[in-house]
Amino acid sequence: MMPTEAVPSTAGEQVENLSHAVARRRIGPYRTALAQVWTLLEAGPGIDPGKCGAAIREAARLAGLLGEPAASALRRRWEREHHRETGRCPRCGERGELHAEGDDSGHLIPAQSPGGRAA
Question: pLDDT at residue 2 above 50?
Answer without folding.
Answer: no
